[in-house]
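All the exercises in this workshop are built on plain-text protein records. An example says more than a description, so a record of this kind follows:
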Amino acid sequence: MSAYFAFFGYLSYKLTGAGDAEGLVGVPVTARFFEVLGVEPARGRLFSAEELQPNGPKAALLTHDLFQGRFAGDPAVVGRNITLNGEPVRVVGVMPADFDFGSVFTPGVHVDLFVPVHPSAFQNSGNVFSVVGRLKPGVSIDAARAELDGLLPRLLRQYQDWGRVTARVVLLVVAIVAGYVPALRASRIDPISALRAE
């Protein structure tokens, strides 16, 4: 399991340096986020354990679009510092061209980069993480839901300062299609039948 900061749209990243200042959309992600999704960078590496710690070294993974657009596809940008919000941030890698975070997780939002975050950075901010995970071989979605249903009340008793927290297990493909249900229905396509056909 891993997670990304669900309200990343409220954060701001200003890139300065060579060329005009540019506002970017960045997504903070926790440890193993890309490993859980099965995605490797096209250039460079993923975040190190040190970078993922609270107050760790500043690092960023660029999307392919930002790499090609702002940096003209220059491979030398990997390993260099860029200036985000007035601070030096090391570019550790570039994601592949076919990895489109926005179309999968936040349709309509264009994402430019990813930064590491430790969950403790938002421990007093309420329900702000969207969690992704992989089912172990042989484990059904119903079994995962039953385990979460049993686990959540115990966690809420242990961490009473969480307040009202809910959680549910949804297949990623269902979560993706949910955003397109109105369009599918307008086209007279039953989204559930379409999923079953897959």
Remarks:
- The mean pLDDT is 84.
- The two ends are 24 Å apart (CA to CA).
- The helical segments are 33-37, 64-69, 101-105, 141-158, 172-178, 181-186, 191-197.
